[in-house]
Amino acid sequence: MFDEFCKIFLNGHGYENYKKLQSFGIAKYLLNLEKKYSGNKVYDESFKNTDKRYRDGKSITPGSFLQQSYGQG
Questions:
Q1: What is the pLDDT of residue 14?
Q2: What is the dihedral of CA 36, 39, 40, 41, to 10 degrees?
Q3: What does the pLDDT look like over 2-14, one tens digit per residue?
Q4: CA distances from 23 to 17, 27, 43, 59 (A)
Q5: What DSSP element (H or E) covers 2?
Q6: Alpha-carbon gap, residue 68 to 46, rounded angstroms
Q7: Of 30, 26, 32, 36, which Cα lies nearest the Cα of 9?
Q8: What gap in Å lies between CA 58 and CA 49, rounded to an integer?
Q9: What is the SS3 assignment for 8?
């Protein structure tokens, strides 16, 4: 599951893939979408920032994404 997470979300198309999964109603099964963050842009911004790091050739790790997602609050 960890490898699949990396393939889906850490390849420069994470935000696009996240939105597709949301439209199918399955993002909630793959990500811990906490209710305290619902309705705000924490996850959107985390995916966008991670995609930008990918495009800029910067390092990307699952930890950096998770820190952005859960480090705010």
A1: 92
A2: 120
A3: 888 889 999 999 9
A4: 10, 8, 15, 29
A5: helix 2-9
A6: 6
A7: 30
A8: 11
A9: helix
pLDDT band of 73, cuts 50, 70, 90: very low
- DSSP states of 33-65 as a string? --GGGTTSSHHHHHHHHHHHHHHTT----HHHH
pLDDT tens column, 38-64: 555 778 888 999 999 999 999 888 877
List the chain domain ranges. Answer: 2-70
pTM above 0.70, yes or no: yes
Burial class (CB in 10 A: 0-12, 13-18, 19+), 40: exposed
